[in-house]
Amino acid sequence: MSTQPDLLYSEEEEALRAAVRDLLTDHCAPADVIVRTESDAPHDLALWKSLAEGMGLAGLLVPEAQGGQGATHREVAVVLEELGRAVAPVPYLTSAVVATEALLACADEELLTRLASGRTIGVLAVGLHTAPGAALKPVRLEDGALHGELTGIADAAAADVLLVPADDGGLYAVAAGAVTITEQVSLDLTRPLATVTLDGATGRRIGDAEPAVRRALRAAVGLLASEQLGVAEWVLTETVRYLKERKQFNRPVGGFQALKHRLAQLWLEVVNLRAAARDAADALASGEDADVRVAVAQAYAAPVAVHAAEEALQLHAGIGMTWEHPIHLHLKRAKADSIAFGTAGAHREALAGLVDLQAP
Amino acid sequence: MTDAEELRSRTRELLAAHPPATTDRLDFLRARFDAGLAWVHYPQGLGGLGAPRALQAVVDAELEAADAPDNDPRRIGIGLGMAAPTVLRYGTEEQKRRYLRPLWTGEEVWCQLFSEPGAGSDLAALGTRAVREGEDWVVNGQKVWTSSAHLARWAILIARTDPDVPKHQGITYFICDMTDPGVEVRPLRQITGEAEFNEVFLTGVRIPDSRRLGEVGDGWRVAQTTLNNERVAIGGMRLPREGGMIGPVAKTWRERPELRTHDLHQRLLKLWVEAEVSRLTAERLRQQLVAGQPGPEGAGMKLAFARLNQEISGLEVELRGEEGLLYDDWTMRRPELVDFTGRDAGYRYLRSKGNSIEGGTSEILLNIVAERVLGLPAEPRTDKDVAWKDLAR
């Protein structure tokens, strides 16, 4: 590689982290997130408003000329780490990253400006499980209207506009009011999925679907690692804290070597995940060798985040199995993230081609 | 404050005064030391200029471009990585002047007389005795796992000087002359067939008090400097992608399609990803050190490398199938340095078994991470207030 990646956080990024964490500490307590998951409004739109309109974070990836911040994936990664820690029920990854990247590929200034402001929430109508190289499931275009049913669309319930790939190869912007959105019962309560039914909906063709979706999903794959880092870091920190307090056999449970070694091992995995996630964010920002670096990060991140959440649950024992303790939110997010935008196995397969380690 | 520009011009002056092409290797290294360009963060007069450690890279790049000889740092790793920082921190002015220059130029090789048959992970339980007789200390005992003892002129040695106090308190740190009567070095053959390290028997060895490092009874604290530096050493390395143990396996995979199976492919890809991520973690640690924000990540790096080296080399033996049943050479040899990726897959597999033992076992390192990084309660200590002589053995 010609240049070394910058794997550290800048002072500005640390300041951004502190601001986001403060906001989430005040407005996204775990108990409130649990209550919200059972309400009619799974998304916290007030929190979204504070993040997007108050702090301008929805437009981080959007150039200043279109009303954005002109920042890079490195800053977005820091925001996602914090949102992951809090398993915040906001459509940040879906609107400010995935839909925004698709619009950047299409150079649709009007929609970009609206998404950057945060007053419009956009969602790419591609199933959450879809890997960047996978075949798309488009809807039919007949007589200028769109027909079809799409499942597993994350955050569709909060969307104002959907970006829909059609069978003519185009990507169409469709107003949410023109389609039927039916919520599915999702494993991850904080990133709900929905079925989107288009029954003769009209949309505006904004560009070619294939390059836009590929770009959007690649950014999603790379930046999801930062969300997973946030999830893993939070569960590790909480578990260490709990095991210093919880006593059995007249000793803090965290003093038993069998458990100390498991936590130390987990710490090591989180340290590795941080380096991998930073490298992926840096790769997306610079564009250098991005396919490999993004795939490496996601092949590593998903198993680590799931392992961290599973270990956290086991080490919290009985209390970890309860609905009132937030660990289940993190486990559900980690497990859903391990399927989102392609499994670790899919990313390893992609790597095999990219780094010349061919299958038999 | 010495900056990069000044170091660059000092390096060019050195090269102009002692052109590498026409200067004797040792003369060049001595001149480099005297110019303060050996380890720039060391003090003036001791091979350095009191400059920031990160600026060494500026000097090294200039010298490499000029094809200047280096001091073969891999061959003298124990001296550079462990003895030197300890002498610098605890030595008298006279000791620093005597030992550091020939140590750095490689004229005098160092070894480390720490571990004993009964004191490995529990190093402070060591039983080698040093008894004061006039101006000398008389040392008796046995050390083990001593790399380079057969090549070394000097050793850093810890020995018990007071058996009546708890084990950490009665230890003193010495510099031992390996050519003295009573020092006997015996090769210790390993599972690879090589004798890379030794047993060292110390019988009535007389060490003058002037070769003591630090106060009498303060040897454990002095040894911490040595041991901390041993574990830091790994952070400085900068590897390209596939630069470590994964390189030879990936090469074999590419060149030998007939060996490929689906199971091996899955395992190879998983390890390839882990090796790449470990490399990134090491790079991140290095960047933190350069930026003056050292993180605790170093504590875990050795753990990660040990496990990866073992898994990757084990995979390669399997990948080679019929060839994996063979070994390149069982001849008893005494290598001057250990090349982990050299020789064949079987050697790499066997040698890497030591990676989770040497320099602190993985189990001990996990305890260190749990206690010092995560702040979890320490292991219960039943020997803390017991005199060394009263401990069960």
UniProtKB/TrEMBL annotation, chain A:
Residues 10-111 form the Acyl-CoA dehydrogenase/oxidase N-terminal domain. It comes from the Bacteria. Its cofactor is FAD. InterPro entries: AcylCo_DH-like_C (IPR036250), AcylCo_DH/oxidase_C (IPR009075), AcylCoA_DH/ox_N (IPR013786), AcylCoA_DH/ox_N_sf (IPR037069), AcylCoA_DH/oxidase_NM_dom_sf (IPR009100). Pfam families: Acyl-CoA_dh_1 (PF00441), Acyl-CoA_dh_N (PF02771). Residues 223-352 form the Acyl-CoA dehydrogenase/oxidase C-terminal domain. PANTHER family: ACYL-COA DEHYDROGENASE, ACYL-COA DEHYDROGENASE FADE28. Belongs to the acyl-CoA dehydrogenase family. This is Acyl-CoA dehydrogenase. It comes from Streptomyces griseochromogenes. The lineage of its organism: Bacteria, Bacillati, Actinomycetota, Actinomycetes, Kitasatosporales.
TrEMBL record, chain B:
It holds the Pfam family Acyl-CoA_dh_M. SUPFAM superfamilies: Acyl-CoA dehydrogenase C-terminal domain-like, Acyl-CoA dehydrogenase NM domain-like. One of its GO terms (molecular function) is flavin adenine dinucleotide binding. GO terms for cellular component: plasma membrane. The keyword Cell membrane does not apply. The keyword Flavoprotein applies. Residues 217-374 form the Acyl-CoA dehydrogenase/oxidase C-terminal domain. Its cofactor is FAD. Residues 27-107 form the Acyl-CoA dehydrogenase/oxidase N-terminal domain. Transmembrane segments: none annotated. Keywords: FAD, Flavoprotein, Oxidoreductase. Belongs to the acyl-CoA dehydrogenase family. This is Acyl-CoA dehydrogenase.
